[in-house]
């Protein structure tokens, strides 16, 4: 996976830029993190499950693996059973997403500017900000998936003596992603395909070592995934055993595929890229004021990102820009499973991973086509995205609103209500 054929900036700039962006993101995510002080949306499921996990009383919320709830439980253990404790590690996960996006763009494109803009777009695309501030499983799944992809690309650039250890690290991250939520499973399969079939010219260390690499990657992934179930072996009631660990996976599958009743905020997969049906995580009087949290994508990034994906595909076909094609493939790979294997009831937050890869597509498209009069197009676009972020901030951050009808100020479409 060679970067595009432009002269890259000195490599030593990248870590400092990544750390600066990551620090800025972390500070932003932490501002008023404890607001609201009551559980929001699916926190009503995962916070009790995390608290119960701390008691090792027995299985609860068994339709999902344990890792996300274990991390929430760690936050409660460190900071107390309060809204800051529930959500703290979600901010760390979102910062990992932002830095991981920077790393993917840097490794593929080879320049700091598009990598920095990709990370900035991730911060400004409301989905990352909101998932950074709620105790849900999707944030952890995304963090491990994005960093797993970055580490896999890093492994492809490794000298021969280091490639296997980097692949092992990537395998561990992918295994932990699945341990947070099964939605990461397709990316494990995509990673295996990449290891098997990426051209030898793009990853010379893999040449003649592909079978070993796949076995190592897959083995470490499986081990990492099953290790996340360790606390369940110590339950006071219905503990797992070596003999019941695999059958328990079938129970989880049955739980996840059972019919669900209709939900107010359910939506179809084709509506997600268009930002048609967002989700009110909160809208009610709480902590002395009316407050709201609307899970909606930044319109500039969501809609502009679709144009960017098409532009990346066009660049891959017309100009043989393989990196642009790979980045478009990340979005397609994240979105396609929901089309092929749709759940009975879908929600906009299922689009979280694809919404992250839109940010990479935007950076790649601006980098490829941003020449001449379009040289500063990425900067102007970032300004538009930042303006929209500031405009929507009150209903992204649960800020106090002047009245119970204040939400109408942001309702661009009737379907957003």
Question: Which features would summarize this protein structure in a list?
Answer:
single chain; 417 residues; mainly alpha; 15 helices; 3 strands; 4% strand
Describe it for me?
This protein is mainly alpha-helical. Helix content is 59%, strand content 4%. Strands 1-2-3 form a three-stranded antiparallel beta sheet. Helix 3 (67-79) crosses helix 4 (83-109) and helix 8 packs parallel to helix 10 (210-227). It is globular and about 55 Å long. It starts with 12 loop residues before the first helix and ends in a 16-residue tail after the last strand.
* N-end to C-end Cα span: 44 Å
What integer is the average pLDDT?
92
SSE topology string: HHHHHHHHHHHEEHHHHE
User: Got a strand count?
Assistant: 3
Beta-strand fraction estimate: under 5%
Number of continuous helical runs: 15
Q: Helix proportion of residues, in percent?
A: 55-70%
In angstroms, what is the radius of gyration?
21 Å
Shape, per Cα inertia axes: globular
Q: Structural class, judged by helices and strands? A: mainly alpha
